[in-house]
TrEMBL record:
<feature type="domain" description="RING-type">
    <location>
        <begin position="46"/>
        <end position="99"/>
    </location>
</feature>
<dbReference type="InterPro" id="IPR013083">
    <property type="entry name" value="Znf_RING/FYVE/PHD"/>
</dbReference>
<keyword id="KW-0863">Zinc-finger</keyword>
<keyword id="KW-0862">Zinc</keyword>
<protein>
    <submittedName>
        <fullName>Zinc finger</fullName>
    </submittedName>
</protein>
<keyword id="KW-0479">Metal-binding</keyword>
<dbReference type="InterPro" id="IPR001841">
    <property type="entry name" value="Znf_RING"/>
</dbReference>
<dbReference type="InterPro" id="IPR011011">
    <property type="entry name" value="Znf_FYVE_PHD"/>
</dbReference>
<dbReference type="GO" id="GO:0008270">
    <property type="term" value="F:zinc ion binding"/>
</dbReference>
Length: 188
């Protein structure tokens, strides 16, 4: 009988296998749902257009605005494109997660879904953003794992070299002791 792996979000416990992403999170390999990936990586994407920032390369300072409550970073053009935006809203920006009560990313209970559209364009963008964040995370974890493996291999080579030197030294000392024993027994 094989071992079956329980597939659920490591944060919220969601068991929807379609929305789960594998990523390096808090120092371990984890599975998080799309909503939790986005909620816990607020600085990794624009919360309005859901453009993921490649390898944490944020837009230049003059093209971005940060949420006043969390690390979310939005494109300033996205903030200005919101229906209620003005020049003051860009300087006093609060992301959707911080400004909308009970907000959740990847909300499959939204009215569009209830109207028969299973995955809306907005939900698809959120899913892709979470997938890109997971990919970037796993690529970083792979680089770290490779560096650790190379370091361990180098340490193993050095340990083998030291062990060989120690064995050579023991062999030399044993030979020297045997020669001294041989000389002292022939002189007696």
């Amino acid at each position: 009988m094989g071992i079956t792996k329980q597939m659920e979000c490591g944060e919220c416990g969601s068991k929807d296998p379609i929305t789960l992403h594998n990523l390096w999170y808090r120092g371990i390999y984890s599975q998080l749902c799309t909503a939790c990936v986005l909620a816990h990586h607020a600085a990794s994407f624009c919360p309005i257009c859901f453009d993921a920032y490649e390898d944490t390369k944020l837009p230049p300072p003059h093209l971005r605005v940060m949420c006043l409550r969390c690390p979310a970073v939005a494109h300033i053009s996205c903030v200005y494109s919101l229906p209620t935006s003005s020049s003051s809203s860009a300087t006093r920006y609060h992301c959707p997660q911080c400004s909308i009560p009970n907000f959740t990313f990847f909300d499959l209970n939204a009215s569009d879904v209830q109207n028969g559209n299973l995955i809306t364009k907005d939900l698809a963008k959120q899913f892709v953003a979470a997938a890109k964040i997971a990919l970037i995370s796993m690529n970083k974890a792979a680089v770290i794992a490779r560096e650790n493996a190379e370091k361990r291999a180098s340490e193993a080579v050095m340990a083998r070299k030291r062990a060989k030197e120690a064995l050579d030294r023991v062999a030399f000392l044993m030979l020297k002791e045997a020669e001294e024993d041989s000389r002292s027994s022939s002189n007696s």
